[in-house]
Specification:
The complex is a heterodimer of chains A (744) and B (298). Chain A has helices at residues 3-25, 38-44, 48-69, 78-93, 99-104, 110-119, 125-152, 155-183, 191-211, 219-229, 233-248, 262-269, 276-303, 306-337, 350-384, 398-401, 405-418, 425-451, 460-473, 492-511, 516-536, 569-590, 593-603, 605-610, 615-641, 651-664, 669-687, 695-709, 718-742; strands at 554-557, 560-563. Chain A is an all-alpha fold and 744 residues long. In chain A, α15 runs antiparallel to α17. In chain B, strands 6-7-8-3-9-10 form a six-stranded mixed beta sheet, with helices on both faces. Classes of the chains: A mainly alpha (744), B alpha/beta (298).
């Protein structure tokens, strides 16, 4: 027996043993009174053990034959195949397929629909078959056919894959609508759409595999070609598809009870005293506006015509405004004539808001045309001008200069404004209480950790100080402020910021001469001290573990009267304003001399000092600015939740915020936002998908995978990325210099 | 030499009986020297002679136990002691330096590296930057223009948008000089600027250093191992050995100084004297041949 065989056998044994261990790990682990080894007996008896041994065997085969698979992985068609499989898997395992089932049986996913379909005799046989066995069979058939197409490049296999993919997409749609038609109810699930997209991707993979001429796939180049073919056209096309959904099937009124579409809403509101504009909009104006904007923006993007683009842009803006005005009259009148469907702003469906997003997409697409063509004009002018002046396109400003910035801002703004109202109450709560607040905190900590490179493990302390300052100033703590100092929650924000600035400087001044790990330990201690102070209630100031009750904010200023209450949506818009202000200010700061000084001390403190940077002052500024952002978040949090206690401000929270920043990409503003948003959204999302006990494991797995495949973070900073990749470049240029130096 | 004669009045650095110890190790022992305005002063010596320690004592990184160091960075400044001053304060007094092992900010672009230096002289604060105040924008434009001019000046035109870490070795040396010049210094301290560069780069560097000295009127203190470079550009040379100043004079004097030759060859002064008499060609380097080689290179 030679070494190779022995190694293979050893690997086989290890894989089988791994399968066996896996079998032991599944299910309950405690013994019962009758049988102490129950978990073991359950694991080895019956057919179950063979399933796990089979898993081991499959892993063995994959490991053994992996080197032979690798060369094919760069072939054209592999990327869409992977994406399609991922989409189909996600659709058929984690996503919801039918909302009414969630409330009745608790499982609205693919498997839940299968159970329900088997139990209902009236369902069409196609639907039963699709949910029963056909869907998975189609996936496996497509996978096999596509693999054959990729390896052999025989055209038939590619066409077979395409056919299977298209059949799968059609069947998914038919089967799902059969279920909805039969059982009725209001369904907002997205599983079927993800499934359709997945099947269509598989079809694309088959075609790509046999028709692409290149030997090595260039997915990125292909996508760039598609996106660059006509700037804005894909966005406009997306707008058309979403618009058709919004104006034909989506519900505009009575979201949870009657789900009126646009046409139904028109007949329902006719004669209720709704404004004539809204009535006309519901009748014909909405459709007409959508049609005109769609045609114009498609034409403008396809022809790259600035004139058409401007007309379409104006029309889209008018569309957003008119849609919004219509929604306002609908919700007002609706709350009067049909209060059973909810009060103002709570009785609308997603359709109207989706229409707003659609018009914004058209606006973004046409803005792209305008900015891309005008950039071309400017470039021509510059080419004629003498070029001794280097344009300031420093790495940080890359985004600023790109012609995509404006459209992206329009889309982001539209989503931030119009998407939250379509969310369920739970998700609105998550959006405000988790995502929004932690995004603000991460943006603040990014200044300290990402830009200045100072590891701060006690960041939550400033959040706590901000919260308690607000609580004190509104008179919610046992110790009341003097009556002339007592104020409303929103007015207290500047004072909270001031308190945190002072706290930041007090902590920073003596400790900032420390570096790296030592600073981290001191800040960690600071965080603990502040939390314990709040719990221990010195002088009866904080109220101890009980925590204060802070009133909700109000604005009474001249004619403006705004009161925030229990509803989360208004808080979202308040938070959005704060976020936008903070992000704009920090964005400017990053490109300023202070931003560069921070980068300099992070890169090389000694060199920065020798270049005249006052490192102490610059670090203190980082600490103070980070702390004041935290204060803003704390102040908002205190007045939004109404009641809080010191147990929220733990070390774990501090570390989580650091994790958000690192996950998103240290030193990148977009990264900090994305990191915090994803990592606060994920646990809430997983709540419905995986057992409670497994949740942290899935999050941990994601973070691990992230650090392996994208070590610089989700959206890495240009500077940081350069730090990780640029060093290679430096090394190579240095080695290139060696032969010349060696010649002397 | 006109530079030396006009410089005799105006002292930039006055180092008076400085002793620097690290525990029991004496790094600088009773060093006294003057540097005059407008001159290129080279400090040479074998490895471990205390050259970099002297640099660090001049820039506030180390604090000598004995002696005084005063600096009058720019022309017309009153002499100020640097002992106990922080590095960035010394820099603000008009003293800029480069490092023996290049210390750029590798992940910043070349332009940004220079701007960091320039902007330490600016006034606008974080609030102005956040609000985009007009004076902040004006300062930003000024620093960009100055940085571009400096990059041009040191021979890196059009390289502003490249990452400092991705530049070639010799270019990084030049960028470091540009960053130091950005702080508008009266005196520039160069710590082995030619280390690791090839002969062509060395010649360009010598030309650059002379030009900075000539055109900007910046006094230059130079540590360098490359004798050819030192002899070709320095107005005056100070030799350190084991933390002590053993010789001072013009390049010609230093080349023929037996003590210096002894320090470099590791023999006693008497032996060196004898050797020098027996074999006059065995000096540190012959100026005539240097000139010849320079012409040959051209």
């Amino acid at each position: 027996m030679n070494t190779a065989t022995r190694a293979t056998l050893r690997r086989l044994a290890a894989c089988l043993l791994g399968g066996f261990v896996l079998a032991l790990m599944v299910g309950r682990q405690e013994g019962s009174l009758n049988d102490f080894g129950i978990s073991f007996h359950q694991a080895v008896v019956g057919p179950r053990i063979f399933v796990f041994l089979l898993i081991g065997l499959v892993i063995f085969v994959m490991v053994t034959f992996w080197p032979r698979v690798v060369p094919y992985l760069t072939r054209p068609g592999v990327a869409p195949l992977g994406a399609g499989l991922l989409a189909v898997l996600a659709a058929q395992t984690v996503m919801n397929w039918y909302d009414p089932l969630v409330s009745s049986t608790g499982n609205g996913k693919f498997s839940g629909v299968r159970t329900a379909a088997n139990a209902s005799p009236n369902l069409s046989s196609v639907s039963v078959a699709f949910f029963g066995w056909l869907a998975w069979t189609l996936v496996i058939a497509a996978l096999v056919a596509c693999a054959a197409a990729i390896v052999t490049r025989v055209r038939v296999f590619g066409y077979v894959t395409a056919a299977i993919g298209i059949v799968g997409a059609v069947l998914a749609y038919v089967a799902h609508s059969a279920v909805v038609d039969l059982d009725g109810g209001i369904d907002h699930s997205l599983g079927v759409y993800a499934d359709i997209v997945g099947f269509l991707l598989l079809a694309c993979a088959g075609i790509t595999a046999v028709h692409a001429r290149a030997e090595v796939a260039d997915t990125r180049g292909f996508l760039r070609k598609v996106m660059g073919y006509r700037p804005g056209l894909p966005i406009a096309a997306l707008g058309v598809i979403l618009g058709l959904l919004a104006f034909s099937t989506a519900g505009w009124f009575g979201a949870l009870q009657i789900n009126d579409t646009l046409a139904q809403a028109h007949s329902d509101f006719d004669g209720t005293g709704i404004s004539s504009l809204a009535l006309n909009y519901l009748g014909w104006l909405g459709w007409t506006l959508f049609g005109a904007a769609a045609v114009l923006s498609l034409a403008a993007t396809y022809l790259r015509n600035r004139m058409l683009a401007w007309v379409s842009l104006i029309l889209s803006v008018v569309g957003v405004v008119l849609t919004f005005l219509t929604l306002r009259s609908m919700t007002d009148i609706g709350a009067q004539v049909a209060p059973q469907f909810g009060g103002t702003w709570k009785n609308l469906g997603a359709g109207g808001f989706l229409a707003c997003i659609v018009f914004s997409l058209f606006a973004a697409a046409t803005a792209m045309v305008i900015s891309s063509t005008s950039a071309g004009v400017r470039r021509n002018v510059r080419a004629k001008a003498p070029t001794d002046e280097l344009p300031v396109t420093s790495m940080v400003k890359g985004f600023r200069r790109s012609s995509n910035a404006m459209p992206l801002l329009i889309i982001g703004g539209a989503l931030a404004l119009f998407y939250p109202p379509t969310l369920t109450l739970t998700w609105q709560n998550v959006l405000v209480g988790q995502i929004g607040v932690f995004v603000l905190l991460a943006v603040g900590l990014n200044v300290v950790v990402g830009w200045a490179g100072l590891l701060d493990l006690g960041y939550i302390a400033f959040y706590e100080i901000g919260s308690y300052t607000t609580a004190y100033l509104v008179g919610a703590l046992p110790v009341k402020p003097p009556s002339w100092l007592q104020m409303s929650p929103l007015v207290s924000i500047p004072f909270a910021i001031l308190a945190c600035l002072i706290a930041g400087v007090l902590l920073g001044a003596p400790t900032l001469r420390l570096r790296g790990d030592y600073l981290a330990i001191v800040t960690l201690g600071f965080g603990e001290i502040i939390q314990i102070l709040a719990v221990n209630n010195p002088g009866g100031f904080t109220g101890g573990p009980q925590g204060p009750t802070v009133p909700h904010p109000r604005i009474h200023l001249g004619g403006i009267n705004i009161t925030w209450g229990q509803d989360n949506l208004p808080y979202w818009y308040l938070l959005l304003i704060m976020l936008i202000v903070v992000i704009v200010l920090f964005y400017r700061l990053e490109g300023s001399r202070l931003g560069r000084a921070w980068a300099a001390i992070r890169e090389d403190e000694v060199a920065a000092q020798a270049s005249g940077v006052n490192t102490t002052r610059v670090k203190l500024l980082a600490f103070a600015i980070g702390a004041s952002t935290s204060a803003l978040a704390g102040s908002f949090f205190a007045t939004q939740v109404g009641y809080f206690d010191p147990s929220l401000f733990t070390l774990q929270a501090s570390i989580l915020i650091v994790a958000y920043v690192v996950f998103g990409g240290m030193g990148s503003l977009q990264g900090a936002i994305a990191g915090a948003a994803v990592l606060t959204w994920l646990p809430q999302f997983l709540k419905a998908q995986v057992p409670q006990d497994d949740r942290q494991m899935w999050i941990g797995a994601l973070v691990l995978a992230m650090m392996i495949f994208r070590p610089a973070g989700l959206l890495p900073a240009k500077r940081r990325k350069a730090e990780l990749e640029g060093l290679d470049a430096a090394a190579s240029s240095e080695t290139a210099a060696v032969p010349r130096a060696g010649a002397m | 030499m006109t530079a030396t004669s006009q410089a005799t009045q105006d002292v930039v650095f006055d180092v008076d009986h400085v002793t620097l110890r690290f525990g029991g190790v004496v790094s600088l022992n009773d060093v006294t020297l003057q540097m005059y305005r407008g001159e290129i002063l080279a400090v040479i010596g074998p490895n471990g002679a205390g050259k970099t320690s002297l640099f660090n004592s001049l820039t506030g990184v180390y604090t000598p136990q004995e002696g005084t160091v005063t600096v009058a960075g720019r022309a017309g400044d009153a002499p100020v002691s640097v002992i106990g001053k922080k590095t960035h304060v010394v820099n603000h007094l008009g003293v800029a330096r480069t490092f023996q092992n290049i210390r750029l900010f590798p992940a910043l672009t070349a332009l940004e590296n220079v701007k960091v230096g320039i902007e330490t002289r600016q006034k606008s604060g974080p609030i102005a930057a956040m609000l985009g105040m007009p004076w902040q924008r004006r300062e930003e434009k000024e620093s960009t223009a100055t940085a571009l001019a400096l990059l041009n000046d040191v021979g890196l035109p059009g390289r502003g948008n490249e990452l400092a870490g991705a530049l070639a070795y010799g270019e990084q040396r030049r960028l470091e000089i540009a960053r130091a010049l950005g702080t508008n210094p009266g005196v520039l301290l160069l710590d082995e600027p030619a280390a690791g560069t090839n002969p062509v780069e060395k010649r360009d560097l010598a030309e650059l250093i002379s030009r900075i000295n000539r055109e900007r009127g910046v006094s230059i203190l130079l540590i360098e191992h490359d004798m050819k470079l030192v002899m070709s550009i320095a107005h005056r040379i100070i030799v350190l050995n084991f933390g002590e100043k053993i010789a001072e004079g013009t390049p010609q004097e230093i080349q023929r100084d037996p003590v210096v030759v002894a320090a470099y060859l590791g023999t006693s002064a008497e032996d060196a004297q004898q050797q020098a008499e027996q074999a006059p060609e065995l000096t540190l380097i012959d100026t005539d041949t240097v000139q010849d080689e320079e012409q040959a290179d051209d």
